[in-house]
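Sample intake sheet
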Amino acid sequence: MKKLTLILVLAIVSKIAGAQANTSLSNLTTTAINKSLLPGTPTNFDLGADLIPWRHIYFNGLIFHNNTQLLSHSVATQSIFLGYNANTLPNTGTNNTCIGGSAGIANTSGGKNSFVGHSAGRFNTTGSSNTFLDINQDNPIQQAVQIPL
């Protein structure tokens, strides 16, 4: 009887131990992650590859590169900011698009603006329905060209 019990215990332990994920993760169902997903060592691992890319990425927040904000999107204001420190201030304006390093950096409540180029529209704080193109970073008067719609 002791031998039978030991065999049953070993069979159960073997079954439990064998229920772990395999190397291709093909035996997992949809899995909730309740911790940060971190690489074992910094800058050594990729997510996807040239010939094996991920199809879609869903995120709610910011994307950083070397601790600098690179991409942000606000569902509440329907605005998108792409570039190092592009519009990092709290912004209540709606439908803004900022593309370029520090583009629209001073805008806090202006809406329906487009800022394209490094520091484009850097002096605009509340204006609306403007398009700014970076022309000459060294000359504040030519810094951006406003194109009336």
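Comment: The helical segments are 2-17. The longest strand covers residues 68-74.
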